[in-house]
Amino acid sequence: MLFLPPSNGNSLVIVPPKPDAFLLQQDEFSYCNLYSYGDSEPSLVTSESSLSAYSCNAVAASPSSDVATQSSPLPTKHSSASLGAPNVSHSGVFGTSTDAVDKNNNNEQHTHNSLILQRDPRNGAFTFQVHAEYDLLLHVQKDLDRYHHKVGREELSTTVGATSDVTEDLEPARIIMKSVDSYCLGKQWMYHIGYEKALAVRSFLQCSLLDFINRHSEELINGHAKKFICVDVGTYCGYSALVLCHAIRSTLMELEARKDSRAKCVEFEVLTTEISSKLINVAQSMFRLGKMDKFIRPILVKEGDVLSEVIKSHLNRDRDGNVAMDNNIATTQIDFLLLDHAKNLYLTDLTDLESHHLLTAGSYVSADNVVFNRLDSYRHHMATLARDGIVETRLEEMNLEYSNNLKDGIGKCPLCRRW
Mind telling me which InterPro entries this protein's record contains (predicted)? Predict the structure, then answer.
């Protein structure tokens, strides 16, 4: 007999059937068309939008380079921000201590240290299975079923619920992220950011959120709502959007628990863009299962769309396209941007957002795979901005997701002033 909590019915997700292989070949989504090594070739970096402009995190199939039998990963370099949000901003000091946040990050680090690469080497880095995304979704649902079964039994055996409301709200998303990690380490490599990079992105996002709160401190103290906008370019199966949403919610909950009244007035939304309707469906299922769907807005981008226009069309509008009624929380900029889509379009899309003033002083930008994919043009652009005093930039080197010996890194750039 399976015991489920009363709220589980609202999270029920019907897994779509696996598409016919022939139909899948006709879909707009193709790993081979969405991935490229490097961004320096003029033919790859253009100002025109293309079908691959806001792709999922996809790569062309190639022989696996990692070794599944290795039990000890190579040493990984981290900056001081990789495991916890530092207590300073680019403009001075934060008014909010991050001790509790750091402790939460360290607990996640300890949990993920127990994850070991166990998959068949033939399913290693840059190998793909046709129906892997649907298989992953089934794997996640089974893990969540086990969690709900356990919670249901504990609630029946105690007069008081075994988990708090806060834990109950955040736990499904955490279980999904861990389930995705276990699938990619134990069965099939996939192109999510992975647990190691997720910790680095999480800490950088916390810096951005705390900086946002301090910049709007007076308004928040006076009870005026302010909206924090997070954009994830490259949805894939929704892992990175869940990482961002979980980090924001847990940080705000920590601040509220410590009686920081400003946190209650902070609203937020994660906009995530994807070009494949099939992957959008998988991601939406992940968001519903993780109870984060009301905070995440998946956007299906069509051929010929320009990223800045897509983002602008969704800012200050609800999910039905209606203009937001409350002008007090109107926003015209991106507070945190994660680039993890077609690698040759990082620089094109970044400069597009820059020129339309969606990125301005106070915005934070994080870009995945800048080392492994040799994104020299993107890194040179950021280095030039840093020399001009526009941004502060740093690189955190670590392994490619779900691999032991492939070097990669994440670029991090808080903006000091507008271009």
Answer: SAM-dependent_MTases_sf
Residue 319, CA distances (Å) to 239, 380, 410 in order: 21, 37, 31
Phi, psi of 414 (to 5 degrees): -80, 140
Alpha-helical (H) ranges within 158-230 are: 165-186, 194-215, 217-221
- 177 with 197: CB under 8 angstroms? no
Q: Which helix (H) or strand (E) holds 365?
A: strand 364-368
Within a domain: residue 34? yes
Would residue 47 count as lying in a domain?
no
Residue 407: count other Cβ atoms within 10 Å of its Cβ.
14
Pairing of strands 88-89, 266-274: unpaired
Please give the model's pTM, rounded to 2 decimal places. Answer: 0.75
Q: Which two tokens stand for residue 369?
A: 């795979």
CATH of the domain at 332: 3.40.50.150
For the chain, percent helix, then strand, then coil, each to nearest 5?
Answer: 45, 15, 45
Angle between helices 165-186 and 99-113 (to 10 degrees): 40
- Interval 66-76: pLDDT, tens: 433 333 333 32
Cα torsion angle, 350, 355, 359, 364, sign: positive
**E strands within 213-362?**
226-233, 266-274, 296-300, 336-339
pLDDT score of 170 more than 50: yes
Distance, CA of 79 to CA of 111 (rounded, Å):
20
Q: Would 326 be classed as within a structural domain?
A: yes
CA torsion 314→320→322→328, rounded to 10°?
Answer: -60
- Give the separation between CA 181 and CA 329, rounded to whole angstroms: 36
Residue 178 backbone zone (phi > 0: left; psi -120 to 50: alpha; other: beta): alpha
Tell me how far apart the alpha carbons of residues 43 and 36 are, in angstroms, rounded to a whole number: 12
pLDDT digits (tens, 9 = 90+) for 287-315: 999 999 999 999 999 988 999 999 999 98
Q: Are 251 and 271 contacting, i.e. CB atoms less than 8 angstroms apart?
A: no
